[in-house]
Amino acid sequence: MKYIDLHVHTTASDGTYSPSDILRLGKNIGLEAIAITDHETMNGLDEAHRVEKIYNIEIINGIEISTEWEGTELHLLGYLFDHLSEDLQKVINRLKEGRERRNEEIAGLLKRDGIPIEIEQLRKDSKTRIIGRPYFAKILVKCGLAQGISDAFQKYLTPGKPYYVKRVYPDANTCIKALIDSGGVPVLAHPLKYKFSNEKLYTCIQELCGYGLCGIECMYSGYQKAQIDSLSKMAKYLNLCCTGGSDFHGQNKPGIQLGYGYGNLRVPYSYLEQLKKIKWGM
Ligand code: AMP
Ligand code: ZN
Ligand code: FE
Ligand code: FE
């Protein structure tokens, strides 16, 4: 059996492994293909493709985009797009601007409260990678205001807490369209993360199907067999494909292993074949 991982973050967004590190690791554990799906950036793809031949692993263009549906933050995965496409780049640029505005606001709040933050350094870092709340969480831990990253999130960086600033997301329809226009295949990421009831999840996915959604991420770190089966059933019923991935972030999401999730994740190569079938109709 050939196995793959279709949900992986690198240092181009908020992972701790570079694209080359990911391929080396993937080779060591015998993965056949990996999709690099950084948050809102395609910057990791060039490096991954450069070393693709060295490690003899198939690299799939991927991206994870935050969007909004009825007030909930939904994540969309895009696969097999043309990474020189302007449609996708436009959406990414809008997200980047929104993110940078939000980051400046959070930094302002920290500064106001006397927490040491180098705004110039933040701006410099924003140029080379995607900066999100984990960046501020680290600062809060470093200055002793939180015990660890997740404590910092809980105390300061989630809705209702003092340093939480809402980001503005493009709607799901716009993102799905941009992914399709760039030749990509749009997929709903980690469908159980939104804490919808079964009915609401179904309504949501059905609506996204109307915009052109092609698949749902049925296999994901921590999903139990019954959950995978139920998502797969929903996918089949709506004529969508199934994808699967670990959401590996290196040390930024401890416990998750590339290709294996929390230990029992195994994504078959046939999932990638389904994606290719949708893109090329083979
Ligand atoms: P942002 O895109 O800036 O809103 O930040 C999202 C990132 O924060 C994601 O990559 C998550 O992994 C991380 N994150 C969100 N909530 C938590 C939490 N409660 N504990 C630790 N990390 C979190
Ligand atoms: Zn992430
Ligand atoms: Fe996500
Ligand atoms: Fe992710």
TL;DR of this structure?
The chain is of the alpha/beta class. The chain has helices at 19-28, 45-55, 86-112, 119-128, 133-142, 149-157, 172-181, 198-211, 225-237, 270-280; strands at 3-8, 33-36, 58-69, 72-79, 185-188, 215-220, 241-245, 267-268.
Question: Overview of this structure, please?
Answer:
- The chain has 282 residues and is α/β, with parallel strands linked by helices.
- It has helices at residues 19-28, 45-55, 86-112, 119-128, 133-142, 149-157, 172-181, 198-211, 225-237, 270-280, and strands at 3-8, 33-36, 58-69, 72-79, 185-188, 215-220, 241-245, 267-268.
- Strands 7-6-5-4-3-2-1-8 form an 8-stranded mixed β-sheet.
- It is globular.
- The protein starts with a strand and ends with a helix.
- The mean pLDDT is 95.
- The structure holds adenosine monophosphate, zinc ion and fe (iii) ion (2 copies).
Please report the number of helical segments. 10
Shape estimate: globular
Ligands bound to this protein structure: adenosine monophosphate, zinc ion, fe (iii) ion
- Poorly predicted runs are none
The secondary-structure class comes to alpha/beta
What's the quaternary structure here? Answer: single chain
Characterize the main sheet: 8 strands, mixed
Order of helices and strands: EHEHEEHHHHHEHEHEEH
Task: Write down how many β-strands occur, each being a DSSP E stretch of 2 or more residues.
Answer: 8
Q: What is the percentage of strand-forming residues?
A: 15-25%
The overall pLDDT, averaged over residues, is 95
Q: Report the span from N to C terminus.
A: 21 Å
Helical content stands at 40-55%
CA-atom Rg in angstroms: 19 Å
- Widest β-sheet, arrangement of strands: 7-6-5-4-3-2-1-8
